[in-house]
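To assess whether ligand presence alters the predicted conformation, the chain was also submitted together with 5'-O-[(L-methionyl)-sulphamoyl]adenosine. Input:
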Amino acid sequence: MNNKFYITTPIYYVNDKPHIGHAYTTLACDVIARFKRLDGFKVYFLTGTDEHGQKVELAAKKNKTKPQDFVDKVSINFRDLLKCMHIENDDFIRTTEKRHLESCQKLWDLLIKKGHIYLGKYAGWYAIRDEAFFLESEIIDGKAPSGAPVEWVEEPSYFFNLSKWQDKLLEHYNNNENFISPSTRKNEVLSFVKGGLKDLSVSRTSFSWGIKVPNDDDHIMYVWLDALTNYLSAIGYENENERFCDFWPANIHLVGKDIIRFHAVYWPAFLMAADLELPKKIFAHGWWTNEGQKISKSLGNVINPFEIVEKYGVDQVRYFLMREIPFGNDGDFSVLQLVNRVNSDLSNSLGNLFQRVVSMVVKNCNGKIPKKPLVFLSQDKFLINSIKDKLDDYRDLIDNQKLDQYLKNVWVIIGNANKYVDEQAPWLLKKNDFNRMEVVLYTLLETLKQIGIILQPFLPLSSNYILNHLSVPADLRNLNSINTFIDGDIEIIIPSALFPRIENN
Ligand code: MSP
């Protein structure tokens, strides 16, 4: 199937409540998934929770709860976040589900059968916060490179023969220019792999909260082997059903920059070893700080996505997160910036355009959308064609994850439309050229319709409001139908304010 599109978020650790980082990765995937659906693709958008491992086991202990009860409870918060952010995922996988356990054991058996996993003994550093093993040479001032505390671990362990895949990985990176994006991340991964890969410990024996290694009850699988496999298990790897054949390999795994190594080195090596196709792209986005400071629980400055959505609105938060920083870079979350963006881009530019155009139509055209004009002037055509003639640009921007740039482009058109209102001055035309006034207002409504269509992936609620208000039928809201002009002679009423200004905070 050529027009299928499989996109994934990382699955989130359930040791704690969802924060802005989780909301951000999931939102970016939602935007891309929604765009692809609009463009006629059959999309599978997966997210979920990573429920095993030492970190989660410890969190359960701290809460004096059994791990299973604990994860059942915390996982719900992540589902709630999806609702709160208006995320349209197709599936939600939990690593404690049967379908996942079966897929992990199937992959393990295959790797054993092909001779890529062997039994040995691990002696080295482990950081529970990162759920990662570290070499002596990677330890900085007694800590993991991320700053996480490490502990010395010595235990029997199965190893995956990662070292054997070094050249094949390098070859794959070379032959597939965009496999790791953006390019700064690619360079980071290249130098790590060129530095030499050691075989990877893939089982643990010192605790039990995980998936049992087949035929060796003393071991549970290393949580990252378990977690990465979710991308296969969700689409039916355990019985390689039709969905699996349709959707594997994934088109994109979108992740944060901190977990690029697991996705761009370990995961492709596991897949190569299992003779499975590799995902087409691993894209790593940057990290948010909060008012200039690193976000951390100990600093007490974690941003709660439920609270900001409640306070500022879903589309407002979605817009800010996607517009504020070039996607892929780090950025700073500042309330002042959020308020400025909402007020200037949403209230003043888009909200105001919608409000004033529709109000003029209601007042001057008998509460009806004017009929489609027979003739447009060049300045009308310029506006009307500026989105629908540029759909390939938007497609490219989405395929290259330039999400902020997409919004910038739309706002140029919103700016042009506002300028056109001023220049054409329909309130003056009303007196001396009524027909021309109708053409101008129709041109603006048609442009607003296209703006509504193209903004659906980012601002699902407000674009829905715009399109409903303009009586655009549900089946004419996709990219393919953007050329169908809006119907005239249809009743229209004064809208309520789309984005009320945030006055004081
Ligand atoms: N469970 C693993 C992923 C396994 S995928 C097979 C994991 N989970 S996590 O809950 O710790 O992190 C999930 C995501 O949140 C990561 O992509 C991470 O980059 C992102 N973020 C965490 N803090 C962040 C910010 N401050 N800013 C942006 N994203 C951040 O890792």
